[in-house]
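Model it.
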Amino acid sequence: MLLNIPGVLNAEQIRIVRSRLEGAGDAWVDGRATAGYSGAPLKHNRQLAEHSPIARELGDAVLGALERHPLFISAVLPNQVYPPLFNRYEAGMTFGNHVDGAVRLLPNGVKLRTDVSATLFLSAPEEYDGGELVIEDTYGTHAVKLQAGDLVVYPATSVHRVTPVTRGVRIASFFWVQSLVRSDAQRALLFDMDNAIQRLNATEADEIARRDLVGCYHNLLRLWSEP
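Modeled.
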């Protein structure tokens, strides 16, 4: 399931994050630092050093915003979230076709299975040319370039790339999620059911039917989840 999630960060939060990133100086390193063996030759960007204090500070701010965003919770059903990273693509920089690694090591040594990939856009579309996140799935190829503060989530199994930036600077945060529900198809069904429940609640439809539907949702989550 590929989904755009608007308004994860508001204008003031974006201003603060961008200001901190612009003053990061030597904390910006070669983006290949976190690329795997096959991805490194394809990756040409800059990245905030993963364990730098500023990366931890801003990553915590992003995590706090995600925890308060009901659409993210409903769509992704997060179990564990990899600490958000930050990258920048200047003119000529790109990242070729690749699939994200299946397992990443958290700072505490725990392994995280990457079910969902996520990119949070921090630059407005008019600030740069090129730099689209291109995602391939069974329904075709999708070019994504969102407003600053908006997030896109998609299956980590997807082939994806960032097209070359030809003007300006593209700044974003990216991370991975291990979901309570491993299967993308099952997550999509639960997401659709949750949306239907919310609409029925808003219209105060048949109370008993709503109760039964909520029960079905939680019983399916109980059946499919891997806490």
